[in-house]
Each structure stands twice: as C-alpha cells, then as structure tokens.
Write a structure and sequence with these properties.
This protein is of the alpha/beta class. It is 35% helix and 19% strand. Helix 1 runs parallel beside helix 8 and helix 8 packs antiparallel against helix 9.
C-alpha cells in the first residue's frame, strides 16, 4: 500500500435513520470518517481514515471496508461498544440526533494523534471531522506544524455555545475551514455568508468552505478574496446523513489534483455528496465508482 496523501480523522457509527414519513432503516453503517474517506477515494485513491471502533463493531462491516480497498491500520480497537445513533428527520429537512452511548463514549471513540499510523503521518492533507471539541483541539495541535501538510477542519455544532473564543483560536490554526451554515450562524450570529467567509479567513485559514445545504457551497480564497459559489449536483435525495462529510472528502481529494482549482474541487465535492444522499447510510458510497464520478463531473 502506498502512503496516503489524504487522511480522514473521525468516527465510525451504527445509525438508525428515521425519515419524516416514519420510514425507518435501522443498523446503517455510518460515521463521518467513512463517508469522507469513501468520497475522497472517488478522486484520490491514496486516501485512508483513522477512526477507532467499538468492541461490537460488525466483522461484516470490517470486511466490507477491506474489500473497498481501505487499510484497517487506522481502525484502532476500543474496549467499549460502538457509537450508535438515532437520526430522525422532520418535514423541513431538520434532523435530531440521539447518541445512545453518551458523550464520554463519543470522546473515547474519537481518534488521537497517537492513533495515526506512522505511514499516515506523511499525508499532504489531514481532514479533522466532527468529534468532541477536546479531541479536535488535540488533533489540530498535534498536526498543524507538520512540514508540507495542510490541516482541514470540520465542526461539531453541538459544542459551539460557550466555546466561541476557543473555536476562533482553533480555526486560526487550520489551513482550510469547512463549517456548515448552522455552525457559521451559531459562531457569528448572522447569515451574510460572504462576510462570514471573510471573517473566518481573517482568523487564519487560507481557504474557507461554507456548506449551505440546498444552496450549495461558498468557497473563499483568502489570497485573492475570490468568492466561488457552486450549487448542489442534481439528483435524488433519500437520506442526507453524511452529505457534508462526503463533500469535504471529495473537495480535498480533488484539491490534491490541482491546488489552484477551488471551483473544480467544490464541484467534485458536490458530486460526492450526491452519491451520499441517494440512499440510506453509507451504502451508496461503497457502491460509487470513480469512473461514474468522473462521468458526472466532466460535463458539469
């Protein structure tokens, strides 16, 4: 196995998805690390993930991950049950997450710098996905000064209130900041997205990517003050779980191919997200093929 160029750090979960009409699909394989990693591999095969797994993590899912070509070197065992969520959607597209294990388990099942295999530490980009704030702080501090590497940060909306200044300091230590609209609004208390992008860029990141749901994304390049808007890729929407994580993975993988093409990276992220929302759980990401991703991306 070649050393990865992109490493996605986050969680693996078992998700029970409930849609507005009451339709339920229990036991879906999920987790931000898995969505982001599978999405990234559509555009950069040298992508791996670091995500601790619980003592009851299904052997069939571990095999599925290996069959997809991923190393399990970053799937460090923890002696507690796997993270298990209930994700209930309402008619307006909102969702309520219920974490059955509790916050302590969420932290224990979040990766640390010492969990990262030595060969993974040579990566060009580290994507730090939503997890506990303490875990994110430790990862950013441990990875931000590695020569030749960029740190990209996603967020966890639940911990924002009361930690605004801590988060501003954390954002300032990252190269790429990738919040959702809800997270940006909580931090800045407004919805002027271009102003928000500039505010975040002033903290330090070279690139800010605002994920705006049905409005697509807004990408800001601090060096040129350029604003790039890209709409969602059209397609069927069944389950939006993992859409933002998949976008992040696709965006960063495409950016590795051409560091100057932020618009192309945003379109690649949108294509990856479209795969994620087309069915329940991570199943569509396991089925997605790089050739199909390129076919969708090329005429767009």
């Amino acid at each position: 196995m070649n050393d990865p160029r992109l490493v996605c750090l986050g969680n693996l979960t078992i998700d029970d998805v409930v849609l507005p009409d009451g339709t339920e699909r229990p036991g879906c394989t999920g987790g931000d690390a898995l969505y982001a990693c599978l999405a990234a591999r559509l555009f950069e095969p040298r992508t791996e993930m670091v995500a601790p797994v619980g003592s009851d993590w299904p052997a069939s899912t571990r095999l599925q991950i290996r069959t997809a070509g991923l190393s399990d070197a970053g799937l460090l065992p923890r002696d507690i049950p796997s993270l298990h969520n209930r994700v209930a959607y309402d008619a307006d597209g909102g969702r309520v997450w219920t974490l059955f294990n509790g916050d302590d388990a969420f932290h224990i099942l979040s990766p640390t710098v010492t969990d990262i295999p030595q060969s993974f530490l040579k990566a060009e980009i580290f994507l730090i996905l939503a997890m506990t704030l303490e875990a994110q702080i430790d990862l950013v501090h441990g990875l931000k000064d590695r020569p030749g590497s960029l740190v990209a940060l996603d967020m966890q909306e639940d911990y924002i209130r009361g930690n605004e200044q801590v988060l501003r300091n954390l954002i300032g230590q990252c190269d790429i900041f990738m919040p959702s609209a809800d997270e940006a609004q909580q931090l800045l208390e407004h919805q002027d997205w271009e102003a928000a992008a500039r505010t975040f860029a002033d903290l330090g990141p070279q690139v800010v990517v605002l994920k705006l749901g049905a409005e697509g994304v807004l990408v800001h390049d601090r060096a040129t003050d350029r604003m790039i808007r890209v709409p969602p890729f059209p397609g069927q929407v069944v389950d939006t779980t993992g859409a933002g994580d998949s976008f992040c993975g696709g965006f960063l993988a495409a950016l590795l191919q051409d560091r100057g093409d932020l618009e192309g990276a945003a379109r690649a992220g949108a294509v990856a997200a479209a795969f994620a929302v087309s069915d329940y759980g991570a199943d569509p990401m396991f089925k997605a093929e790089p050739g199909e991703a390129r076919r969708r991306l090329q005429p767009w």
